[in-house]
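User
Take a look at the entry that follows and flag anything odd:
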Amino acid sequence: MAAPGLLRVSRIIRADAETLFRAWTDPQVLMHWWRQEGEGWAFAGASIDLRVGGRYRLAMTNPQRKTHAAVGVYRDVDRPVRLVFTWDWEEPGRSVGETLVTVEFRHAGENLTEVVVTHERFADVTRMGRHEQGWTELLRLLEGFIG
């Protein structure tokens, strides 16, 4: 059971860890899967400075063409094992405060990798449900793109 203020989702994907790590860190790959599931959602750009202390911005547009962007700073970059970064939404009304995301790429068999997303430090645990749904959808979209 996850601690209060912490959520964890995972998915086993048929790909090696390096391929999946690149999918999380290369804007040319992110553009194929980083968005919400559903009609009208689209990738809207990524800027990534992939180093400890480097900043990122990952954006998508909703069906009404409003941009939603996640922003933060990389805290750990251990290719192809782990990414750790702060997370918040750029729009003040969506902000959850500075939270922390860890993405781990765990060997799960021949050409299988378990992608584990741990999102923690939510000050308001009522905001976690939508994030859990979002991470679950993103892992499903990543698997669909890779597969």
About this structure: The CA atoms of residues 69 and 103 lie 18 Å apart. The longest strand covers residues 67-78.
